[in-house]
Amino acid sequence: MRESIILITGVNGEIGHGLVRSLHDEGISNLIGIDLNTPDDFVLERTHDCLIGNILDKNLLERINAQYEVEAIYHMAALLSTRAEFSPVIAHEVNVDGTLNLLDLAMEQAQSRGKPVKFFFPSSIAVYGIPSLDEKNRVGAILEDDFRYPQTMYGCNKLYCESLGDYYSHYFKRLSATDSRGLVDFRGIRFPGIISAHTLPAGGTSDYAPEMIHAAAKSEHYDCFVRADATIPFMTMQDAIEAIQLLMAAPQSSLTKMVYNIKAFNPSAGEFLNKVKEYYPAADIDFVINDNRQSIIDSWPADVNDDQARKDWGWSAAHNLDKAFADYLIPEIRSRYEQS
Ligand code: AKB
């Protein structure tokens, strides 16, 4: 008998850490991680095993396929938006070919088990591309079907992978004799910027918010690379993980979309800095604008409409901006830096 497992790719990344923390706290002990780098002790102590390797390595995925029964895949590995602009072809390989490999693994597993494999895909507000700042300010909270004209390689990759998820769930090899519909149970969330108290992001364009608060906590200088009026939605890592768990637990029959918007709060960078200064009055933060990164933020929505996630699977953020700081970021960040 093959051992039954839950697979997390990019397990040593930000959301990987958050997921491992929460699944482990729920008592789930059959987590297998994959990461390019050896995960830190936090992850190693909370997983059954971690495989060091690349999701582009088909031999590695074949070994997993042969050795385990995969119940669910949380596919978190990706190159984020800023990093992807420096290496678009590599980003395409990792973000698209890597996702294709994982969807294929899910399909093979589902076919051999004769039951669906749940597949969680973290999409992003980067799938949206609003042509001008005037239009961004005018349109306000946008729906899932609006403005899907991404301006970054990462956004293009995420949008295409949403379609691949739809293909694997509903139309896979429809000309063959075997009916594979529903075997891959693909569920996605278009995340806003995520702010964790425990980890720092790497290579994203929404990184300015988490970087500001962590720099202030460590009494370090920080140059914020977007203007004070730059506005996109954000949420805490706790809320992001809660959303993944809620969506993955929802009955398939209640889902009307494959990929959902969710939101929590959407301060401008200036408003976020003011909040940081309420807790760290000496925060040493300047605005030193990088026009190219700013233009990416300008193309992303200032707000999204998440009514469908609320209706279909009961989504609602626990943290608005005030609660994010008072109940989560400040207490956890303080204890983190006091310990180190
Ligand atoms: C990024 O900035 O690339 C990500 C995202 C918004 O998906 N954090």
| Biggest sheet character | 7 strands, parallel
The helical percent reads: 40-55%
Question: Beta-sheet strand percentage?
Answer: 15-25%
- Overall mean pLDDT stands at 97
| CATH architecture name | 3-Layer(aba) Sandwich
Strand order of the largest sheet: 3-2-1-4-5-7-11
Question: CATH homologous superfamily, by name?
Answer: NAD(P)-binding Rossmann-like Domain
Low-confidence stretches are: none
Ligands and ions found = 2-amino-3-ketobutyric acid
CATH fold-level assignment: Rossmann fold
Number of beta-strand segments = 13
Which descriptor suits the 3D outline?
Answer: globular
Total domains, how many? 1
Query: Could you give the order of the helices and strands?
Result: EHEHEHEHHEHEHEEHEEHEHEHEHH
* Head-to-tail CA distance between termini: 44 Å
Figure out the total of helices: 13
Using the CA coordinates, give the radius of gyration: 20 Å
Broad CATH class: Alpha Beta
Structural class designation: alpha/beta
Say what oligomer this is. single chain
Brief characterization of the structure:
The protein contains 13 helices and 13 strands. The protein is of the alpha/beta class and 340 residues long.
